[in-house]
Amino acid sequence: SPLIKMINVWKIYEMGDTEFAALAGINLEINEGEFLVVLGPSGSGKSTLMNLIGCLDLPSKGTIYLNSKDISKLAESELARIRGQMIGFIFQSFNLIPTLNAEENVTLPMEFQEADMQKGRKRADYLLEVVGLSDKKQNLPSQLSGGQMQRVAIARSLSVNPPIILADEPTGNLDSKTGNYILNFLDGLHKKEGKTIIIVTHDLEIVKLATRVVYLKDGKIEKIETCTKEKPCE
Ligand code: ADP
Ligand code: ADP
User: Fold this and answer.
1) How do 35-39 and 212-217 pair as beta strands?
2) Whose CA is nearest to atom 12 of ligand 1?
3) Separation between Cα atoms, residue 43 and residue 41, nearest integer Å
4) Other CB atoms closer than 10 Å to residue 39's CB: what's the count?
5) Of 111, 127, 150, 234, which has the most beta carbons under 10 Å away?
6) Residue ID of nearest Cα to ligand 1 atom 1
7) Where in the numbering of this chain does the ABC transporter domain appear (predicted)?
8) What's the CA gap between 152 and 178, in Å, rounded?
9) Does the Cβ of 150 fall within 6 Å of ligand 2?
10) pLDDT on residue 78
11) Which residues contact 176 (CB under 8 A, 6 or more apart)?
């Protein structure tokens, strides 16, 4: 069965006495190990879709299964628990905690999981090494460049080893060297570690890695393209 299954999912925002459907009847199945790119114009519902998949928000109508479990009506505490176990976020705004150094930012999600923190710090050091920041462990976010902050955010998103990685324009504001680095890193997570990756991006280099591309328009799926090695999506 699919890792994620959305059945007739709606997200309706109420503003005063008007309603707006940011998502209007989404049906989508995502299998384990997919590299799914979400495309669509501004306002088409991409962030809303990511928030639902990431267990950050609940649908107004419809059903979402994650690992065959219905997550569409869960209480926030339960949703947060599943989010912590299943989802790694690579969002553009980094969301690093400004008062914590790089290492502490990476260990934080493990503390939420009440993991063994001696092991936790070892894993944080390993991850910071993987992203090439061993010498910046003690730096606060304000003492890092944009690309370095993004790499700390990546290390943090992997700290609890989640099976699903959600990324929102991960290469958006970065120089091409850091962008390439992140591209290769995501590719490795997908191909070597079998992670399921779901990305909102317009970066054509990332689209080339996709197994499928979902096009959103006005809160609906306009089309889904399947990509192959012989004929990558573009
Ligand atoms: P995208 O990520 O594709 O730009 P979003 O998912 O952010 O699109 O937004 C989809 C639509 O829903 C937009 O028209 C946006 O204005 C609206 N929207 C998003 N969040 C809210 C909210 N909290 N309240 C009201 N409308 C919202
Ligand atoms: P990049 O070329 O990656 O954008 P920057 O030019 O922003 O890097 O920074 C160069 C180096 O200086 C980086 O290694 C960064 O960690 C360090 N650095 C930047 N700002 C500060 C700061 N406020 N305090 C300490 N180190 C800093």
Assistant:
1) parallel
2) 22
3) 6
4) 21
5) 150
6) 43
7) 4-234
8) 12
9) no
10) 94
11) none
Does ligand 2 come within 6 angstroms of the Cβ of 149? no
Q: Which atom of ligand 2 is nearest to the CA of 136?
A: 16
Closest Cα partner for 197 from 208, 209, 180?
209
Distance, in Å, from the CA atom of 154 to the CA atom of 84, rounded to the nearest integer, reads: 15
Alpha helices in the chain (DSSP H): 46-53, 76-86, 102-112, 117-130, 146-157, 176-191, 204-207
Q: Is the pLDDT of residue 133 over 90?
A: yes
Query: Each residue of 93-116: pLDDT tens digit?
Result: 568 999 999 999 999 988 877 678
**pTM of the predicted model, to two decimals?**
0.83
How confident is the model at residue 21, as a pLDDT?
97
Contact 185, 90 (CB under 8 A): no
